[in-house]
Amino acid sequence: MRISTKRSVNAMGAKTLLLCFAMVCHAAGAEQLLFSAEEEGVKHPVSVPHEVNRILAQDPDVRDVLENEHIATDTAPSAWLLASEIHLRNSAERDLIIIGEGPLSGANVTTFWIFRPTNHGYEPLLKAPAHDMVVKKARTNGYRDIELLSATTDTVSTVLCRFRGGAYVPAAKKLEPVR
Q: Are 168 and 29 a contacting pair, CB within 8 Å?
């Protein structure tokens, strides 16, 4: 099925197109700042730590998929998860962005999770379904802001998440018509 470029650009919205352009222009060795449901990987993949995988397997949505797939385990299959390391607070803290793949993703949407390391393992900071997740330069309480983007045939949804009270929470939401 061939989709015209004009229609694809309209469906993505100008904002998402600019974000994609910024990602392509970003230096190859730089930290990845844009993650998309349509990408087939991440720029700097890392293995999902066993502890993070166990935490994810307890997530109600992941647990439902494990049960529907008749998989009895305390971890999700590695093929279902992509991971990338990022520094949300400082260069010493190695945070993880986890992206749901396969049965954990849908049509033009996936689930993104963010984890940070602690002295006792890993702590979840965000779980959000979206088409794109953008790590911003702006900071709240020392952590970089996160922007989530989703689209339907006629609307683009943008949710800005800020770090408050030990987790990322929605701080601003905007719905715009696709032009």
A: no
- Which residues neighbour 98 within 8 Å (Cβ) at sequence distance 6 or greater? 48, 52, 56, 81, 82, 83, 112, 113, 114, 115
19: nearest Cα among 116, 102, 137, 124: 137
Low-confidence ranges of the chain (pLDDT < 50): 1-9, 11, 14, 16-28
Q: What angle do CA 174, 177, 179 make, to 5 degrees?
A: 130
Let me know if 43 is exposed, middle or buried by CB neighbors in 10 A (0-12, 13-18, 19+): middle
Strand ranges across the sheet with 167-177: 34-36, 132-140, 143-151, 155-164, 167-177
- Tokens representing 24 are 């392509």
Q: Where are the domains of the chain?
A: 5-177
- For residue 128, give the nearest of 83, 163, 169, 88 by alpha carbon: 169
Q: Give CA–CA dist 80/65, Å, rounded.
A: 11
Contacts of 82 (CB under 8 A, 6+ apart): 41, 42, 45, 98, 99, 101
